[in-house]
From TrEMBL:
Recorded family membership: Belongs to the CDK5RAP3 family.
InterPro entries named among the record's database cross-references: CDK5RAP3
Name of the protein this chain belongs to: CDK5 regulatory subunit-associated protein 3
Species for this entry: Sus scrofa (Pig)
Domain of life (superkingdom): Eukaryota
């Protein structure tokens, strides 16, 4: 016959059995109840928390690794758009700006193939508007015939004998906070003296200010314009126009595609010509009705002899030129050309992606470290749990044996231990 005794019924310091147990049995039962109800569940909960943290850190590690790779890819993709490697963004961007005139010269050379498209537009305007004397696209026609000339040549119609290009200011690199150069302020350091070793030669500084005595007359405060009292004349010089004849200076020395005003006019005329040819290609793709045929019977030969394929190829060439002048890379280069300090802003914009990639990589390493710490904590808790389970089973056997003695050797089985 088995005697089953619930764990909750074991005495914890006091209780009544069929026979009153001894102090040893009371202590054993108290340890067993504490292990089963508190110690073992607490260790299992800590181990489960360590496992949960490991899963959480593993997920964040994967996210950090993926995010770092994505931001690094965005950085190199942006560098590729600018045409740089990304090793030294600032220096490479400044080198691109210095190479910008040659790139604009290539665009100007490519515009020389637009002669047929310009003549087609001129013929259409002259035929439809009946004003053959009016010249269309003057800037585009100039670049098509003379290339990317200077503003001076566009303004005066003659090539300059001397071109004095403005100096491209290269902004200094930003000084790190821990490497500030305070310069030499002319302060002499003395080896002795109560003034902390610093003596300033204030008397030797000529500030260019002289204090007059107070004994001047009341009218002495008036400005003395001189004896001849000749009226001063202020002459306003217009930028770029006061240079000697034949000398291109200032904005006149810039090319048409470098100077913002002429570059914008050039782009506008490219878009105007592209819109005309695109519309013309659409009209040619539709079925020719009697009205359109009759309208172009008296048109110039250049209009009647055009094909749809030729018109589409002209549109493609124009779109390529517009794209080369208006893409993101060229926009930033033009901004840097207009304001060299803008290069710091572009550099910071690109470096920000690389910094985010580095931060995510550090976060990934931190998650790996925390994952290892959680794993080590779990490895330290598991032997404690195994030992506690083993000791608890021993307590259970001792208590069962003690109770069995009190019931004439009957088998005893403790319930509710769940070990």
């Amino acid at each position: 016959m088995w005697v089953r005794v619930p764990v909750a019924c074991l005495p914890c310091g006091a209780g009544v059995w069929a026979e009153r147990p001894g102090p040893f049995s009371v202590e054993l039962s108290s340890l067993l109840v504490r292990n089963v109800n508190y110690e073992i569940p607490s260790l299992k909960k800590q181990i489960a928390k360590c496992q949960q943290l490991q899963q959480e850190y593993s997920r964040k590690e994967e996210e950090g690794q993926a995010g770092a790779a994505e931001m690094r890819e965005q950085f190199y993709h942006s560098c590729k758009q600018y045409g740089i490697t990304g090793d030294n963004v600032r220096r490479e961007l400044l080198a691109l700006v210095k190479d910008l005139p040659s790139q604009l010269a290539e665009i100007g050379a490519a515009a020389q193939s637009l002669g047929e498209a310009i003549d087609l537009y001129q013929a259409c305007v002259g035929f439809v508007c009946e004003s053959p004397e009016e010249q269309v696209l003057p800037m585009l026609r100039f670049v098509q015939t003379r290339g990317n000339g200077t503003v001076y040549e566009w303004r005066t119609g003659t090539e300059p004998s001397v071109v004095e290009r403005p100096y491209l200011e290269e902004p200094p690199e930003q000084v790190e906070e821990d490497a500030i150069d305070w310069g030499d302020f002319g302060v002499e350091v003395a080896s002795e003296g109560p003034d902390s070793g610093i003596s300033a030669q204030a008397a030797e500084i000529d500030w260019g200010i002289s204090l007059e005595s107070d004994s001047k007359e009341a009218g002495g405060d008036e400005i003395d314009w001189g004896d001849d009292a000749t009226a001063l004349q202020i002459t306003v010089l217009e930028a770029g126009t006061q240079a000697p004849e034949g000398v291109a200076r200032g904005s006149d020395a810039l090319t048409l595609l470098e100077y913002p005003e002429t570059r914008n006019q050039f782009i506008d005329e490219l878009m105007e010509l592209e819109s005309f040819l695109s519309q013309r290609a659409v009209e040619m793709s539709e079925e020719a009705d009697i009205l359109s045929v009759s309208q172009f019977q008296l048109a110039p030969a250049i209009l009647q002899g055009q094909t749809k394929a030729k018109t589409v190829s002209m549109v493609s060439a124009l779109q390529d030129l517009i794209g080369r002048l208006t893409n993101l890379r060229m926009q930033h280069l033009f901004m840097i050309l207009a304001s060299p300090r803008y290069v710091d802003r572009v550099t910071e914009l690109l470096q920000q992606k690389l910094k985010q990639s580095q931060l995510l990589a550090l976060k990934k390493e931190l998650m790996v470290q925390k994952q290892q710490e959680a794993l080590q904590e779990q490895a330290a808790l598991e032997p404690k749990l195994d030992l506690l389970l083993e000791k608890t089973k021993e307590l259970q056997k001792l208590i069962e044996a003690d109770i069995s003695k009190r019931y004439n050797g009957r088998p005893v089985n403790l319930m509710g231990t769940s070990l």
